[in-house]
Amino acid sequence: MAEEQHHHLPPESSSPPPQQQNQHHPPPRKMSPDRKPRKNMAPYSGYYQTSSPYRALCTCLTILLLILGATALTLWLVYRPHKPQFTVAAAAIYSLNVTSPPSQISTTMQFTIVTRNPNRRVSIRYDRLQAFVAYHNQAITPQVTLPPLVHRRHSSVAVSPVLGGAAVPVSAEAVNGLMMDQAYGVVRLRVVVVGRLRWKVEGMGIKTGHYGIYVKCDVLVGLKKGFVGQVPLLDSPAACKVDI
């Protein structure tokens, strides 16, 4: 029996021939002489490592500022100051003379002004207060300086300044209007108080800066020509508008 001859084929190679490798993988490009090589990234990693303490410091400062802001807001909500309240409780006219020409008004008046501090934890300190009387938006008395005033928390204080004494030039319309109002028996006057104030938190020693204050009180009085003395307030007590 003739022996069968077996032909052994070489094993198939899994890699493509050299020609196919060259087709899929192009040869490396040559670097242009003008192109600079990429820098090492080590300096960047070192930068982030050295900047971590500064980032922690910024975080601590931010948290501290937030805490301080929250504390200040809480104190403001608890101790926030409210504007004082002013009213005119009484009025007296001791003299009132009108001349034309020249158009002048000479008068002496006294008003009882009651100021109330509505704050329960904050006191008010007034400084450089001045008062005068106006008629038809024109001053008819010189400005009188009032003494400094300390207004304790949640309390009321009454002052009775005497205003006037010297003749004040005014317009002819003001003179004619005042003479007509006297004949009718009703005169509308405006008491103005200007100055500065600041608030102080009792028990903590915290003081605010100075703020300008402007108080205007429109008073309707019953006044006949030639009458001297205390005059009735037709809108008693006359509330005042306070601007700070």
UniProtKB/TrEMBL annotation:
Domain Late embryogenesis abundant protein LEA-2 subgroup: 116-217
A GO-annotated cellular component: plasma membrane
Keywords: Membrane, Transmembrane, Transmembrane helix
GO biological process, one term: defense response to other organism
Compositional bias per record (Basic and acidic residues), positions renumbered to this chain: 1-10
UniProt main location, coarse: membrane
Residue ranges of the region described as Disordered: 1-44
Keyword hit for Cytoplasm: no
Pfam families documented for this protein: LEA_2
Subcellular location field: Membrane
Bilayer-spanning residue ranges: 54-79
Keyword Membrane in annotation: yes
Membrane topology listed for this record: Single-pass membrane protein
Annotated protein name in UniProt: Late embryogenesis abundant protein LEA-2 subgroup domain-containing protein
Species, as recorded: Rubus argutus (Southern blackberry)
